[in-house]
User: Which sequence fits this backbone?
């Protein structure tokens, strides 16, 4: 019997001890992640508001949401926000990582300094940027007026486009350090001989970068991309504090919309939007992995 | 070219932080326009002594919650990491991957259900309501960091311990853990920082100063007459950030190591 063969491969006492070691960690995760997520999925099929009895409504919440302008806007906005921030972070992250890969005095000090935006709370970062973009007190408006770029203060957080860019800039500032550290790790693992050989062969800086660096850091790049994309799709703290979803509802992300529905007791709708958010995260992660594998098989 | 790059990097990283400190030392946030530059520590005195602002309470809550959560997470992950990296049992590859997959869930899909559960158990506005989910959220990261660290420790050490007559527990505590301490400390640091900065759960599960954490406190800061007290907010932000920045600078080796191993799980 296959089961008996399986059990013979493992020493029984070892398996029991192993499970005992694993049990606490696994059970906490199951209790506070797996079960809530399952519960949320389950709840998304119910009409769950305070003033009406709870009723199974199948996919009604979902079809409801898909025609809700708030949701559609949040969906579009979240994808746009994620695309823009991940793209900018990756470029900046790569540039800064290349910089930190060079030898110079104070390099490890600089490496630590680069982590500062990562270390401070997201809320603090959001408040700082909110003040920078502030209409009356902000540094940005101050610079604009003193350098004569414009004679009027600009209401950054009052226009949807400007608010979008304010969010992107704040997010890039906060999370680029993470990308830098990951890419730096990848860069430092590259063998120096390849570069020396290329230099001897007469390849220029850009050629060395394109032919050696880029292909070899692809796996690390993919990891950074996946992590940043997942985190960006789930963004909540920054938006809640920097713009509050405003002006109007123009900068609400999926998590913000879900939060608002939860706190207005529209539990079924909140659950449904959470399900959709997860599906998007899942789909994009699978897409990244597939693209990564595809490219690797091309090498 | 490297020098320009360094300048840009430093400016990019530090200007907002400098701005935060600057505002915190000035009584009126519009000092740029009015030209008043009377620096003072009034804002700091304000937030640290004012009872109605509860900032000390927020600090206390955050510290206790973060330290307890980080401690428990690393404790549990040490056991689990030891098992996964050294012992043979069905699922010793599937389990870490499953936990990794669970870390992908957006917090928004957890928060609604947990709110209901905590509300029905009367656990809202307690430390436990935050510590337990934080542990669950931090286990994937911590497990992978500690696991990779354990994997680098040669199994011969275990075997030497067994030969000398020690059981699994003694081997773990006396031999392996002391060597793995750097990795465990990395995990502790990262989890501590993450718990300290967490916002969504703290916002949903806490209601007043008895359990609210620093991020919630700073986010909801309100002025006496409806105007936003930027000086106080920045002072509070500075007080919240400086310990974290100090930790990161002091222990940058551990932080960077943790970030790197925690990410190479792909």
Assistant:
């Amino acid at each position: 019997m296959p089961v008996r063969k399986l059990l013979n491969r493992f020493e029984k006492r070892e398996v029991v001890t192993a499970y005992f070691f694993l049990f606490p960690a696994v059970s906490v995760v199951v209790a506070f992640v797996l079960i809530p997520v399952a519960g949320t999925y389950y709840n998304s099929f119910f009409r769950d508001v305070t003033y009406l009895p709870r009723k199974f409504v199948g996919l009604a919440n979902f079809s409801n949401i898909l025609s809700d302008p708030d949701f559609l806007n949040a969906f579009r906005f979240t994808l746009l926000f994620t695309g823009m921030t991940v793209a900018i972070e990756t470029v900046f992250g790569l540039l800064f990582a290349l910089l930190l890969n060079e030898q110079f005095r104070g390099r490890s000090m600089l490496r630590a300094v680069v982590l500062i935006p990562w270390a401070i709370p997201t809320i603090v970062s959001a408040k700082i940027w909110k003040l920078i973009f502030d209409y009356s007190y902000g540094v940005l408006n101050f610079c604009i007026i003193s350098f004569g770029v414009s004679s009027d203060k600009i209401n950054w957080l009052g226009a949807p486009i400007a608010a979008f860019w304010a969010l992107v800039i704040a997010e890039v500032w906060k999370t680029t350090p993470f990308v830098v550290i990951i890419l730096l790790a990848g860069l430092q693992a590259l063998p120096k001989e390849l570069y020396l050989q290329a230099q001897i062969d007469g390849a220029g800086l850009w050629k060395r970068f394109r032919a050696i660096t880029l292909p070899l850091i692809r796996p690390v790049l993919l990891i950074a991309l996946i992590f940043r994309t997942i985190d960006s799709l789930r963004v909540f703290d920054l938006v809640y504090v920097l713009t509050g979803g405003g002006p109007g509802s123009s900068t609400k992300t999926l998590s913000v919309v879900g939060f608002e529905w939860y706190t207005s007791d529209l539990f079924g709708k909140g659950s449904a939007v959470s399900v959709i958010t997860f599906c998007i995260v899942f789909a994009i992660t699978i897409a990244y992995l597939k693209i990564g594998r595809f490219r690797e098989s091309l090498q | 070219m490297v020098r320009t790059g360094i300048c840009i990097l430093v400016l990019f990283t530090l200007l907002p932080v400098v701005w935060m400190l600057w505002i915190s030392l000035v009584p009126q946030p519009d000092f740029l326009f009015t030209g008043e530059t009377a620096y003072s520590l009034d804002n700091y005195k304000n937030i640290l002594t004012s009872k109605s602002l509860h900032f000390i309470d927020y600090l206390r809550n955050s510290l206790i919650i973060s330290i307890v959560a980080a401690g428990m997470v690393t404790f549990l992950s040490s056991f689990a990491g030891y098992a996964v990296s050294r012992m043979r049992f069905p699922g010793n590859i599937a389990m870490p991957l499953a936990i990794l997959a669970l870390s992908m869930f957006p917090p928004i899909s957890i928060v609604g259900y947990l709110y209901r559960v905590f509300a029905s158990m009367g656990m809202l506005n307690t430390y436990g309501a935050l510590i337990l989910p934080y542990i669950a959220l931090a286990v994937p990261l911590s497990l992978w960091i500690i696991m990779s660290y354990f994997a680098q420790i040669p199994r011969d050490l275990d075997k030497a311990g067994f030969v000398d007559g020690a059981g699994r527990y003694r081997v773990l505590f006396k031999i392996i853990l002391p060597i793995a301490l750097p990795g465990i400390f990395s995990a502790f640091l990262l989890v501590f920082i993450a718990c300290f900065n967490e916002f969504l759960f703290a916002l949903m599960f806490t209601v007043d100063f008895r359990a609210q954490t620093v991020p919630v406190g700073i986010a909801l800061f309100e002025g006496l007459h409806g105007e936003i007290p930027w000086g106080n907010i920045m002072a509070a932000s500075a007080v919240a950030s400086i310990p974290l920045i100090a930790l990161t600078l002091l222990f940058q080796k551990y932080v960077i190591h943790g970030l790197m191993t925690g990410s190479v799980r792909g």
